[in-house]
Amino acid sequence: MESAYKFTEYRYRFLKETKNIFSANPRTTAKSQERAPRDGGLSKTEQNFLELIQNDAVRRKETIKDIVLKCSATSFEVYIDEIKQLSWENSKLREELRRKDHVMDRKVNEEKQQAQIISQKNEQIRKISQEVEKTKSELKKVKTGINKEIDQPNKSKKGRSTSNRRKREEILEIPVLPENISNDQQAKEACDIFFYDIPKYWSEDDVRTNLMKIGTVYRLQIRGQYKYKTVKAKIALNENFEKTFLDGHFGICISKHFIRWYDVKLGLKGRRERDQWQTVRDLTNKEMESIKKGTTYDFTKKLQQTSKTAFIKIIKITKNWKVIGYFKNLKEMEEAVEDSCTHGDINRVWLVRNKKTIYKDGDDKTRSKKEKTAQAKVITPEKRTSSPPVNRRHLPHHQRESTEN
After folding, report:
1. Is residue 237 within 8 Å of 254, Cβ to Cβ?
2. Are 324 and 277 in contact, with CB atoms under 8 Å apart?
3. Of the four listed, 3, 152, 174, 216, which is most buried by Cβ atoms within 10 Å?
4. Which residues, in sequence order, are bridge partners of residue 260?
């Protein structure tokens, strides 16, 4: 009904306009006929079309009414086709517009995301730069402290209270093999070596058995520490381990335990000088979980391979586990610290270790309370004494004799 109504309306308007053209005065009709060829002259093809239409109309003896109605119907079909074409082109243009709008929206979102990523990266760079500056200042302090130690003699530490010190365990000496140096060439070549970081739960037999894996042991001296044991052994190392020891490696791995070793000839000062370049950082939760699920050996071995450290030590006696890195010199330590700052993870940045800091069980508050309590116990007996001790050197001779009696 809708299309029929449109056609009826169109036919009405077409007949009305045609009637108006033909019913106009002769002057207007003449002007329109004069203007028609000048404005839009018929081509040769169009003239052929008109002649064919005229011949068909004469042959069929069609009336003016039939011709006008056919022209109206044909004009309407042409009009409908043009409308459909315009509608199709319009839909295509709208679809292209929606696509371009979608592309623009996506570009805007991408630009926002890029701006957000850049902002986050800038914030990370700022934090890492702060950490780098902090680390550089600590390195300067370390250098300054080393120069002071070289220029100034060490101060006496006799004033330190001995009541707060942990009671040292006695040295347990274990002869393993008789030392017949005159007849045994291997015994002549044996050397004294200190072994650090040996697990506390190793028994004397475990220590002897594990050290026998790297050489022939003649004598052992074992002292227990807080969580480890220190062993002084007279041992003739096997060929491979002797080469490793002479090449200056900081430690070895025995039964999946990483152990430091030192030549006894170095002395305490030499051992401290070798271990003076240390860094420390907290292990992340992810790293602690990987150690709990796997082993300390696997994690330490992997970290040793990916870092420039000479030795790696894991500390598990604090709330946040820590890893300590030992380096051969200051340059390697500085390079490792700088490399850790470029990884983009603040939690994995190496910090220069203050070797006066001791990591023990419990948090800092608990340790400080224990220290204050211990100091109070030491001070209390001194306050209870009625008079200070007498210095006999300032008494006369006869009074000194009476006090001696």
Report:
1. no
2. no
3. 216
4. 196, 251
Helices (H), 152-169: none
Element (H, E) at 253: strand 251-254
Q: How far apart are CA 223 and CA 237, in angstroms?
A: 22
The whole-angstrom separation of Cα 197 and Cα 315 is 11
Regions in the chain scoring below 70 on pLDDT: 1-5, 25-40, 146-169, 174-184, 317-318, 355-405
Contact 177/218 with Cβ under 8 angstroms?
A: yes
∠ CA 92-97-102 to the nearest 5 degrees?
A: 125
Q: If DSSP codes are grouped into helix, strand and coil, which group holds residue 153?
A: coil
Judged on CB neighbours under 10 Å (0-12, 13-18, 19+), 402 is: exposed
For the domain made up of 169-273, give the CATH fold. Alpha-Beta Plaits (3.30.70)
| Side chain identity, residue 366 | T
Do 283 and 322 contact (CB within 8 A), yes or no? yes
Right CATH number for 275-369 from 3.30.70, 1.10.760, 3.40.1440, 2.40.30?
A: 3.30.70
* Continuous H helices in 152-266: 185-189, 204-211, 239-246
Q: What is the pLDDT of residues 336-382, one digit of tens each?
A: 888 888 877 787 888 888 766 666 654 444 444 444 444 444 333 33
Paired tokens of 145: 């402290």
Nearest-angstrom CA–CA distance, 129 and 136: 10
Rounded alpha-carbon distances, angstroms, from residue 203 to 200, 224, 372: 8, 11, 35
CA atoms of 405 and 402, how far apart (whole Å)? 5
Three-state secondary-structure class, residue 228:
strand
CB 312 within 8 A of CB 325: yes
Distance CA 310, CA 333 (A): 10
